Amino acid sequence: MSPLDTDPALMAAIRDRFTHVETCPFAGPRVFFENAGGALTLKSVVETTATFAAIPDNQGRANAASHALVSVIDRAKGDMRVLLNAPDGKIFVGESGTELLFRMLRDACLGAPEGGIVLGSTVEHPASRSAAARWAGVSGREHVLIPHDDALGLVTPEAYAEHVTPDVRVATILHTSPVTGMAMDVGGIVKAIRAVAPDALIIVDGIQHACHGHIDIAALNVDGYAISPYKVFSRHGYGIAWASDRLTALEHDALAGGPEGNWELGTRDTGAYATMSDVVAYFEWLGAQVSDAEDRRDRIEAAAEAIHAHEASLTDAMLHGIGNLPGLAQIEGVTVIGGEDNPAREGLVTFAHAERPAVDLVAALDAAGIRVHTRKADHYSGNVLTPLGLDAAVRVSLCHYNTLDEVRTFLAAMQDLEKAAA
């Protein structure tokens, strides 16, 4: 059990650090279970964004304001190294996490030795799957997709081991699925790849995983990792990537005569960098509340552990019920994607109802003041839903600032809808 489950004062303090926790500025009071579509934003991020949006100066000038902006960016990169546990390599911002995955996969495919294949899996989000398919084709390579386990909603290291060959030049891995909610064993998958193709360039989509707190680049032995800050308590408008020195050494778009190894094109938003310092500070603060750790990285690890435990409590209650409220697993006609008891689940439950279309359930829950989302069997989610014979499903995505009381509200609403349909 997490301290977040047992300390109401701590949960109140956590929720107080975020905007629009209980009320939508457009629709009024609501429970926010659409975190996979974009997490709540830290109040400090909103304040930081406003502060830097008002500053007219650019980086790289000979004045105090410009020097201060450069210092903010350097500090933010250092903070992100702690969050990601990435002592080497390059950290940089781009248009979005998706755009950065496209860039890194382009450079990997165009810069890898000729021949061979690009390896991925069918569970991946199109951010990596589409990028790998495009640049595999441009570079004259076959794009091989490993089938994921439909029942578990994930792909295993064993599945990679069965398909990896010595001619793998580039490989992609999804850290956590935004459709099934399952986290992959990235470390195990990397070992399976490197055992057969040690020089493969490996790029990881960490967009859905980042809000759960635990990213350890140094332990993963990969070449690229991308996140979308709006899914990890910051805001829209930019993405963050880490690239290994090996990936950085390949040719990529850059200004002629510019600094060697630079990934960024044009002047970047200092405020974007600064808001990631706010995110790191939040993880450190939370880690200090749930542990006695003094080291920054140790506090982040402690926060991640508490987050994982609390989100497991929330999803367990959602699936198996609270008090006299039945969970989703007890509702007749409900199918839980990835299974009811899957230890790989990270704060997300996707389900389908045999009698009620997903879009109708989402609308009914919205009317009851509960924000969830329809995942359709389209280019985003068809790779997961179509093999299951589903045209759509309901995604309920939680975060560590959500509470058991909010889960009770959701289950009570589901019970009311079941009674109304009887």
UniProtKB/TrEMBL annotation:
Coiled-coil parts of chain: none
A Pfam family matched in the record: Aminotran_5
Superkingdom of this protein's organism: Bacteria
Key words, A-Z: Aminotransferase, Pyridoxal phosphate, Transferase
Database matches in SUPFAM superfamilies: PLP-dependent transferases
GO molecular function, one term: transaminase activity
Domain Aminotransferase class V: 31-409
Matching PANTHER family: CYSTEINE DESULFURASE, CYSTEINE DESULFURASE 1, CHLOROPLASTIC
Protein name: Putative aminotransferase class V
Source organism (scientific name): Roseivivax marinus
